[in-house]
Amino acid sequence: LSNSNGASVRRKMLAPKRRETPPSSEPESSDVRSTADETEDEDEDDENADVERIMSKLPKGIDPQSARQILNDIVVRGDEVHWEDIAGLDGAKKALKEAVVYPFLRPDLFSGLREPARGMLLFGPPGTGKTMLARAVATESKSTFFSVSASSLTSKWHGESEKLVRALFGLAKALAPSIIFVDEIDSLLSARSSGSEHEASRRSKTEFLIQWSDLQRAAAGREQSPRDKKEGDATRVLVLAATNMPWDIDEAARRRFVRRQYIPLPEHHVREQQIRTLLGHQHQELSDEDIQVLVHVTDGFSGSDITALAKDAAMGPLRNLGEALLHTPMDQIRPIRFEDFESSLYSIRPSVSPDGLRKYEEWAKEFGERG
Ligand code: ADP
Fold it and tell me: Which regions are flagged for Acidic residues bias (predicted)?
């Protein structure tokens, strides 16, 4: 297991496959495979073989059923994201390279004073590229990518939540280098309510914090005991978290994130870059002037709002066709025009209000790093 798996196995481990059904409600789902599943292509067979290989060498102390659930639902495969896919955010990219990518690739250089942080928080408005950044970090550092949300770590089965969280960290060490990406960390770290379902999320929160502290300890000690080493490489596991509501994270949890990186809305030149990329391979006739107008009117839009706008505008030429769409040859579809964007701007509006934005700016000033 661990590094002896080599990059090729990890590449395959990262091949496409995600399931939406939470296996917590269907504990044996991964064993009960439907005929449709079985006729899927060879990639899937390869992945299954990888999962089985990992399962057969599972380090002691990791619950096999939880491990299977993590491997099937939480380890993300395929759809690699590279730095150049992300418009702008140069400061954040630089910070992530220095804090994660280089230390993972050259652990020998990053010890002592250069010891990397074990946790990094990405915060900012929704749809600004936080998830994309986390995926790019995993791709560029050749890490196994564990994508977690509070609900994926909460099982309604008594005691299962802790097992899941332990399996998550256990596998992350065994398959190191690993990135544990927690989306909407605010909901994992602020389980305040009561009731049996919330009892489960409280348990997963507590276990998460314990496991995370262990990682931090292992990294600080650097010298791992032989037992630790057998379990994998705790020094090359990083918790990367994202939130749209940084103010909801309690102070103790906030302090654990030594690095807090603000991911702001895209500035003028970044919007231009993104719009040009989106239009890149399209049949369109927007002039430079049109693009400048779009860049101007999308002030306040997030990267995801801009993507939604371009997608909606791209539908313009088809919408005008009505039923004729069904038999019009491809080469007779008119190009996308500025007027398509104009119509789309009526329905696609920025998801963050100026007031909302101010709240992020203030939090960033007080607690964050910019970039
Ligand atoms: P977040 O995690 O911050 O909510 P995501 O990373 O999930 O946002 O981005 C959502 C979508 O918006 C992406 O899949 C992409 O299409 C688009 N997007 C957001 N930010 C950028 C960016 N900086 N560059 C390119 N596309 C972006």
Answer: 37-49
Ligand 1 contact via 236 beta carbon (within 6 Å) = no
Q: How far apart are CA 159 and CA 74, in angstroms?
A: 19
Name beta bridge partners: 148: 182
pLDDT of 7 reads 37
Where on the phi/psi map is residue 282: left (φ > 0), alpha (ψ -120 to 50), or beta?
beta
Distance 182 CA to ligand 1 centre (A): 16
Among protein residues, the one with the nearest Cα to ligand 1's atom 4 is 127
Cβ atoms of 344 and 312 closer than 8 Å: yes
Percent of the chain surpassing pLDDT 90: 41
With the most atoms of ligand 1 within 8 angstroms of its CB, the residue from 130, 132, 302 to mutate is: 132
Q: What is the chain's mean pLDDT, rounded?
A: 81
Burial of residue 263 (CB within 10 Å: 0-12, 13-18, 19+) is buried
DSSP symbol at 242: E
Separation of 269 CA from ligand 1 center, angstroms? Answer: 16
Length of the chain: 371
- Strands ordered across the beta sheet of 237-243: 144-148, 178-182, 237-243, 119-123, 259-262
Beta carbon of 300 within 6 Å of any ligand 1 atom: no
Ligand 1 contacts CB of residue 89 (under 6 A) = yes
For the chain, what is the radius of gyration of the CA atoms?
A: 23
Return the pLDDT at 111: 80
Q: What pLDDT sits at residue 62? A: 86
The residue with greater pLDDT, 195 or 234, is 234
Mutate to test the pocket of ligand 1, among 76, 270, 307, 309 (most ligand atoms within 8 A of CB): 307
Instruction: Kindly state if the Cβ of 274 falls inside 6 Å of ligand 1.
Output: yes
Query: If pLDDT is split at 50, 70 and 90, which confidence band does 168 have?
Result: very high
Positive or negative: CA dihedral 195, 257, 146, 264:
positive
